[in-house]
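Our consortium's second objective concerns turning raw sequence data into structural hypotheses that experimental partners can test. To show how far this objective has progressed, the report includes one record in full. It was chosen at random from the queue rather than selected for favorable results. The single chain below, 798 residues long, was entered without modification.
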Amino acid sequence: AATTMVRFVALVSGGKDSVLSAAYAAAAGHTLACMANLRPANTATQELDSHMYQTVAHGALDALPACVGVPMYRRGIVGGSCVTTLQYERAKGEARADEVEDLYLLLRSVVRREAARGIDIRAVSVGAVASDYQRLRVEDVCGRLGLTVLCYLWLRPQPQLLDDMVTCGLHAVLVKIAAFGITLDMLGQTLTEARDKLQELGRDYGCHPCGEGGEYETLALDLPALFTHARLVLDETQRVIVEKDKFAPVAHLIPTKVRVEPKESARPAPADAIVVCVDADEREPETEGAESAADAAAAHLGGVSLSEVCVGGVAVVDALPRGAPGHAQFRSFEACGTPRKGAGGEATAALASGGEGGTVQKYTAEDVADSVRSALVAIGEALAKEGLGWRDAVYVHLYLSDMGAFATANKAYIEHINHKNPPARACVQAKALPEGALAAVEVTTAMGAREGREVLHVQSVSYWAAACIGPYAQAAAMHGLWHIAGQIGLVPHSMELAEGARLQARHAAANASAVAERVGAPLHRCMTECCVYVSAARGDDARACADEGGAALAALCFGEAEARRPGPGPFGWGDGVGAVRHPPLYGSHREWWPATTFVALSVLPKGALVEITPVAAQWLAEDDMHLRVRDWAWRTPPPQMPPKSPRDIGGMSPPATARDAARAHAHVDVDVDCRGAYVPGRLASLRSVATAAAPPPSGASHAQMGEHAAHALCDALQAAELSPADVMCLRVYAVGDWAAAAATAAAVERALGGSVHAAPVAAAAVGGQANMTADVAVVVRAVRAAPGRATGGDGHGS
């Protein structure tokens, strides 16, 4: 991610958006090295039938370098709009002639020519505001060139953005009009003159105030923050009327005489601020048939057993697909064997892994990466047996024994999952994993037809939400059940962590909320469950982190979603977030709360203090769909003590079956708290926690607590008109070592019955108390597809 200041090239069309985006990138601290522009190959042509590029008034752009003070590279557009699907797949034959490849060739020339001048181009600024079509194509090109996309206008509210343009002194004129209500007399008007009319058309007729629907195009003549040497002046223009309609004329303006007017007290532009045409640069295509990272890894593994390429262990898949229609879940880990040997025959000390009997063995980051590889290979083989592949994966939960190996483990992950529209992902460090494993992987996949699988993957750095510049998406769904990637407290425009637990929690919640809003599953209406990981690295601060995470979630649940508040002025970069009130789903009823689990871990990614991982059901946004909530708690007394009355929460007593089963097996005094959010007969997200009132529990009491928690879940499933056979996700957290976690997991499986034996139990011991006050936490998601009812979303494919 663009966490450091870099040199960037501004991709400019001459319009207001691309110019303002470049100014925002410079205001964020990045250095503008040059500009790049695509124009018609035939310079006499004013407008192309392009889905990507603005070309009207392109003749005026030759004067831009003298105004901005940096060179501008230009290339002609020879391709057409051949691949018009939302996703750009250049593997298709027609992609060779697509206009997107002209952008690739232009930026490749820029990178090479600037490198020859000793300038390392690392990023590209673009002016996309709301077009996934354009953003995805720019991200595709930049991904192939190893460049970061800076897209600071992305999803900014257009009325506010238009006002910001005027406020910051952006002087632009309308050079094309093509929408109802925009009359011929507005052609040539400045943005300031046209603003009120454009805002009115947006309010009354749904037009895009910033012209994102093609309503109009502009030519920027001045922007004080970017045009530091001179401004453009249009001395003569020619009006061309394409369609003379009384209510929606189509016309454009051709600048025929353009003058560069130096600014007062400004130095002349540098001598290298010129236009450089790169049409003659080589046009050789990318190497055809080049191996992908995954193909190369497969070739490397060919003919070699897993035990030879891993850390002396065996990759184990302990769960096969089962559960709810349309879903499956796999889990794999590598049983830990011998540490990797260094050149001298000794184990290379880098990372510590807890072994049996409290012993500590040393492993390298590459050992952890090998464990990730073997787990992914094993899951890949299991997927293949079911006729599935990694493109069916919806969510990946990656557990590492040491977060210090994250970068190396992530490279191993990319070897297997590097396709477009990857699954969402959460990555955490666990205190102990099965059989001393260094890594464990849990994968939720889509079963059957892929039409129900949806992905939101935005790689551009923006104000909107934290970018996913990596092999995972912000969110992925199957039939409208959205899994949102683990969100930490990153400030999106800088991709840096906010300061302190409070701001980190609020930014994490704001990131998650922005993603959920984009996919049509706003968290204040649709969140069914959430796991909040907090860092225990600072000891007692873990509880404070949990409190902040809970407060941020409460704002979402009760209709006060967190949203970013820009700093002062149009180029302010405040890190603050402020509350934006939504109509609460349940009015003033503030008892609604999804199944939420707080888990303290020793280390989170990037040293974050809070990580939020929500799940949201998109179809709950429908007016006739509502979650029901049950919350109950009780204590299971020792056999020699008389039964205590259950504690009644929210006017609902715990089911008698759960109490009776718990008391019949009680050997320790255990508090059980179970909460469920569900739609009867369709979905249940449940969280059950158990705590021993006695001193620190032994492995035996962990098993009993797991059993009690599971009995409560059985009754909750029954109340939701579901059964253990509908369970698609079952995760266990236990305080202590792996023996305690394993005992808990085994007890949960026994208590839930044989019908769940094939469901995955992702048990991981944590460095603090699960749910912050409990010894055991069990999280269950059960889903049953509604017969004859479409549950898909609105077609997000990005």
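The partners drew two points from this record. The longest strand covers residues 230-243. The chain has a mean pLDDT of 76. Both points have been shared with the crystallography group to help prioritize constructs.
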